[in-house]
Amino acid sequence: MDEELLPIGQFARLSRLSVKQLRHYAQLGLLVPAYVDERTGYRYFRHEQARDALSIGLLRSLDVPLAVIAQVLSGTSGVLEEVHERLEAELARRRSTLSALERVMAEGLPSAPVTVVTEPARRVAVVTTTAADPSDIGAATSAAIAGLLRAGPSDAAPELIGLFPLDFGEPVTVTVALVSEERVAGAELDVLPGGRFARATHVGPYDQIGLTAYALLSWCAERLCPVRGPIREVYVSDPATTPPDRLITHLMIPLEEL
């Protein structure tokens, strides 16, 4: 055996990793020992491998997945950009959650005036897409709206309605409807049913609509109102010209007859 080989314990101290971590990375093929004693199973490493070991420790501390670390060590370029995008998206979600929490802290648990309204049936152009999970609903909705606006008529202010399931699973079906009598490229013509709805108005950023939805569902539950999905979001304001804290959205839940 090469005298320059380091036993796993010594190499662990040199690389700032635990023996357990080194064994795990060896099993994954991420950091393969230079030599394994066939009789004892002891693992040995060369000191030149310390840089890779320290790199693994550094990248793991930055929340880089092991699969991506393997690509980095192999010299694949551009892979850390995807991790950066993921972390940025997670940070945005955390900021949104913090903002909603601060609003609850300042105003208390959400409450909103609720009215029962009767809506007519409407002819609509519909686009249905899928969000990978609840955190992706905003992006999926925005993409669907952008597609409808590009293809829809430009001679009048668009009437846009989002339709979402009452209970989110994974993935989440997201539907956006544009009130229109005419066909819209990339969309299907449909009829949005009318009927009786419980309606509350949300004023504020779209990512805080869940607060008003809570108030609306609480109102229904307290009155034993049977509800059915989907919940509707009627977008009153133009986000291109309206500050986020002044966006107006009507939330509507179809009511079943007792």
From TrEMBL:
Gene3D superfamilies of this UniProt entry? 1.10.1660.10, Regulatory factor, effector binding domain
Sorted UniProt keywords: DNA-binding
GO molecular function term, any single one: DNA-binding transcription factor activity
**Any one Pfam family match given in the protein's UniProt record, by short name:** GyrI-like
Its protein name is MerR family transcriptional regulator
Q: Pinpoint the HTH merR-type domain residues.
A: 5-75
This protein's species is Nonomuraea deserti
| InterPro entries for the chain | AraC_E-bd, DNA-bd_dom_put_sf, GyrI-like, MerR-type_HTH_dom, MerR_fam, Reg_factor_effector_dom_sf
The protein's matches in PANTHER family, at most eight in alphabetical order, are given as: MERR FAMILY REGULATORY PROTEIN, REDOX-CYCLING DRUG-SENSING TRANSCRIPTIONAL ACTIVATOR SOXR
